[in-house]
Specification:
This protein has 69 residues and is α+β, with helices and mostly antiparallel strands. 41% of the residues lie in helices and 13% in strands.
């Protein structure tokens, strides 16, 4: 599933109570959508810790895939 992967309140547009858009899709990826959902109520420090972990895990997987070629 296409995942925004940088989902937070600063990337969500609202008109009153209506969600009107999600911006900044620069780091979208094909990861499970729960990565975005899990980030919606985290503190900034917890979010940074998880983001670092996810990034490191993604890079390890990327390197594994590239060494198999």
């Amino acid at each position: 599933m296409l995942t925004h992967f940088d989902f937070w309140s600063g990337n969500v547009l609202w008109d009153g109570d209506a969600l009107t858009g999600v911006i900044d899709w620069a780091v979208e990826t094909w990861w499970p959508n729960y990565h975005d959902l899990g980030r919606t109520d985290l503190t900034p420090q917890a979010l940074r810790t998880l983001h670092t972990s996810w990034t490191q895990r993604g890079l390890r997987r990327w390197n594994q895939l590239n060494t198999q070629r």
